[in-house]
C-alpha cells in the first residue's frame, strides 16, 4: 500500500493501491463451503495457522501482534477472533501486509523487518489453515492507473485497461489461479491432516454508481471494478473447490457494509478512514464480520 502524501496524486495512489491490490467484491452470489474433514481443532487441541495479506493482517485496527512490525498485523484481525472462539492448543498468525503467493514460500521484506516464508508455520501438526491471498499477485499497483476523476460518469481506468480488446484485470486474475492452486497443494502436502479454508475478500464497492465524490471513481469504473473484483473472489472459490479446500464467502454478508455506507455501518473504510484502519481496508467491524463467516463454515456453536 502506498503511503499517504499531500495533494491529489496521493488520492489516486491510495485509491488504486488500496482498492485494487488486495481484492474485493463477489462477482456472483456464491456460497461458503466447508472444508473436507480432517483432524479436529479447538477446545485445547490442534494447531491453527493463518496465512494471508493485509485483508487478513488488518493494519491499524488493533494492537501490534507478533513480528515483524512491518507486516502491520493486528491482534483483533479475523484469525485472532477465530482463534479466540476455537481455543486451539496452538495458534500462529503469520499474515503480512503486501504478501503475494510467492511470500508463502519465500521471505517477505517489509519497511520494518522481514517476515519468514509463511508456509514455514504449516507443520505436520497443523489441523486448520485459513488462507486469504491472491489480490497482490494480480499486480494492480504496477499498472499506475489514475482512477480518480472529476467526472462522475467517467471510466478512465476501464478505457485504458480494456484497450485493444484485452481486459488486463481479467487476464491477470486468470494467471493467478494456478498460483493459488499450487499453494493449496503445498499446504496439503505439509499438513496432511489439516482442514484448509480459503477466505474470500469482503464487499468494498456498492451496487449502482458508487458515491462520487466521496469515492472519486466514476460510475463506469465502479461497474468495471465491481465485475473484475468479483472475478477475483470467483477464482478463489473455484481454486478452493478444485484443491480440497473449503471457501468462506465474506462478500455476501458484507453487502450493505461497503465504503459508501455510514461510518457506523461499513466494514471497509474509504479513502479517508473514519475509524482505525488502513484506507480501503477492513476496520474492526469488518474483521469481526469475516471471523463470523469463518466460524459459520466451521460449524462452531
Explained architecture:
By secondary structure, the chain is of the alpha/beta class. It has one domain (28-298): SGNH hydrolase (Rossmann fold), CATH 3.40.50.1110. Helices cover 33% and strands 10% of the residues. It has 8 helices and 7 strands, in the order H-E-H-H-E-E-E-E-H-H-E-H-E-H-H. A 5-stranded parallel β-sheet has the order 2-1-5-6-7, with helices on both faces. It has a two-stranded antiparallel ribbon with strand order 3-4. Helix 3 (78-86) crosses helix 8 (284-298) and helix 5 packs parallel to helix 6. Residues 1-17, 19-29 and 141-145 have low confidence and may be disordered.
Which terms summarize this structure?
301 residues, alpha/beta, Rossmann fold, two-stranded antiparallel ribbon, 8 helices, disordered N terminus
Amino acid at each position: 500500500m502506498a503511503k499517504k502524501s499531500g495533494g491529489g496524486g496521493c488520492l489516486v495512489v491510495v485509491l488504486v493501491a488500496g482498492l485494487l491490490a488486495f481484492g474485493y467484491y463477489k462477482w456472483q452470489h456464491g456460497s461458503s463451503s466447508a472444508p473436507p474433514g480432517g483432524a479436529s481443532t479447538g477446545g485445547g487441541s490442534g494447531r491453527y495457522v493463518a496465512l494471508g495479506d493485509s485483508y487478513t493482517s488488518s493494519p491499524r485496527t488493533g494492537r501490534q501482534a507478533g513480528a515483524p512490525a512491518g507486516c502491520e498485523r493486528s491482534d483483533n484481525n479475523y484469525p485472532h477472533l477465530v482463534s479466540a472462539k476455537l481455543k486451539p492448543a496452538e495458534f500462529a498468525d503469520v499474515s503480512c501486509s503486501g504478501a503475494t503467493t510467492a511470500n508463502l514460500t519465500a521471505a517477505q521484506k517489509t519497511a520494518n523487518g522481514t517476515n519468514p516464508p509463511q508456509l514455514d508455520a504449516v507443520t505436520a501438526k497443523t489441523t486448520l489453515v485459513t488462507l486469504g491471498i491472491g489480490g497482490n499477485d494480480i499486480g494492480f499497483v504496477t499498472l499506475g492507473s489514475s482512477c480518480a476523476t472529476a467526472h462522475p460518469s467517467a471510466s478512465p481506468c476501464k478505457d485504458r485497461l480494456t484497450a485493444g480488446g484485452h481486459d488486463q484485470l481479467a487476464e491477470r486474475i486468470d494467471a493467478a489461479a494456478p498460483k493459488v492452486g499450487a499453494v493449496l497443494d503445498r499446504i496439503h502436502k505439509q499438513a496432511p491432516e489439516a482442514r484448509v479454508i480459503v477466505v474470500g475478500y469482503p464487499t468494498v464497492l456498492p451496487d449502482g454508481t458508487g458515491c462520487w465524490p466521496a469515492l472519486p471513481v466514476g460510475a463506469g469504473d465502479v461497474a468495471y471494478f465491481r465485475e473484475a473484483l468479483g472475478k477475483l473472489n470467483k477464482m478463489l472459490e473455484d481454486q478452493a473447490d478444485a484443491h480440497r479446500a473449503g471457501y468462506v464467502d465474506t462478500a455476501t454478508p458484507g453487502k450493505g457494509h461497503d465504503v459508501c455506507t455510514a461510518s457506523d455501518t461499513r466494514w471497509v473504510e474509504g479513502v479517508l478512514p473514519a475509524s482505525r484502519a488502513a484506507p480501503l481496508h477492513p476496520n474492526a467491524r469488518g474483521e469481526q464480520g469475516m471471523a463470523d463467516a469463518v466460524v459459520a463454515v466451521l460449524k462452531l456453536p
